Structures are given as structure tokens and as C-alpha cells.
Amino acid sequence: MSILAKFIQSNTDWKKCPDPKLPEYALIGRSNVGKSSLINMLTERKSLAKISSTPGKTQLINHFLINNSFFLADLPGYGYAKVSKKSRAKFAEFTLKFLENRKNLMCVFVLIDSRIKPQKIDLEFMEYCGIKQIPFVMCFTKADKLKPRELELNIENYQNEMLKNWESLPETFITSSKNALGKEAIYEFIDQTNSLFSN
To answer: Which domains does the chain have, with CATH numbers?
Structure first.
């Protein structure tokens, strides 16, 4: 299938985001988790989302319209490397306001680097989503950089860590922007979830 993807706008105020007449999916994760690469893989565009070697480059809420049927919202990463604490708090505040107030937000894709052990900041963010009753899924990135058994063990470790505080686990996707792993599964999930949207 061919993907029609269009950049709509960037800002820091949820009230100025696109009219919530279509379902919306937000992507968030630690800086340098591969968020821009994943967006480009999903949209079949090489530079729709700007990729940078500098963590924390996304400092705005960026909206993309996909197939004229839903929005992707690219949110600032948490755990920025080179911004001041004041800026970090400001980013966090407008991101949380967006997550808590967007009525058309169907799900948050929490991006997790599949190569590293469970990170406190990721676990805390997912706990926040649970408390605020914001639907989310776990999306493991950079799967191509591991051997299959290593990948399996890392994800198992993560799930075991989650089960210390969660009764059940959210849906999980395994992705690689290099070979489009996970693309079909994500679109299938979005299609199913879109059918639940009511304006």
C-alpha cells in the first residue's frame, strides 16, 4: 500500500493543534530512541521527520496527516541531553497537557530501545499513562541491531520488569526502521483502533 503523508504544523500548545476531527496517535520516547526514523519508515518518506545525531532535537509537537484519515503526533523526547532544566520542564509541561487534553488521542506509542535494559524514565512514563488512563502500547525500536535470541531475552526482561507493577501488559510491537519490521502490524493496529473513533 502507498502511504500519503503530509506535515501539518508544529507548536507547543495543545489548543492550537489540528482540529480533533480525526483519530490521533502520538509517538514518544527517550531522546535518540529512533522516533524520527520510525516515522519516516511508517510514512515511506526519507526526511518527513528530521533525523539528528543530537538527542532532544524534537522540541515541538509535530503533526502529520496520514492517508487523510488520521494524525501522527511526534512529541518531544524525554531525557534531553543538551537543554537546560528549565527548558526540560517546559517541554514536559506542554507534552503532558497535550496527552491529557487531546480528545481524539487514541493511543500513545511509547518507543523503547530494544538494545538496552529497562530504563526508569520509560517505566515512570508508562506508569503516568496508567494513572491518567491514557491508552498506550510499547514499541521496541532498533530490533535489527540484535540477534533474534538477544532481542527475545531483552524484551522478556522488560516485560518481567513491567509485571512487577502491572497486572497485564500493553500490546507490544517490535520494529526496525532499517527493514520496515513492524510496519504492517502497526498499521493493522491503527486501522482497528480507528474504527473505534467517534468525533
So the answer is: 1-8+38-62+73-102 (no CATH), 105-199 (3.40.50.300)
End-to-end CA distance of the chain: 26
On whether the CB atoms of residues 74 and 25 are closer than 8 A, the answer is: no
- Given a contact cutoff of 8 angstroms between Cβ atoms, the answer to whether 17 and 95 are in contact is no
Q: What's the whole-model pTM score?
A: 0.90
Burial of residue 46 (CB within 10 Å: 0-12, 13-18, 19+) is exposed
d(CA 135, CA 87): 27
Phi, psi angle pair for 38, to nearest 5°: -65, -45
Identify which of 193, 190, 165 has the alpha carbon closest to the alpha carbon of residue 3: 190
Per run of 10 residues, the mean pLDDT along the chain (length 199 residues) is 88 93 96 90 80 53 94 84 56 86 97 94 90 96 96 95 94 96 97 91
In this prediction, residue 102 carries a pLDDT of 96
Per DSSP (E only), the strands in 30-181 are: 61-66, 70-74, 105-113, 136-141, 172-174
- Per DSSP, which regions of the chain are E strands? 5-11, 24-29, 61-66, 70-74, 105-113, 136-141, 172-174
CB pairs under 8 A, 24+ apart, for 90-93? 90/12, 91/59
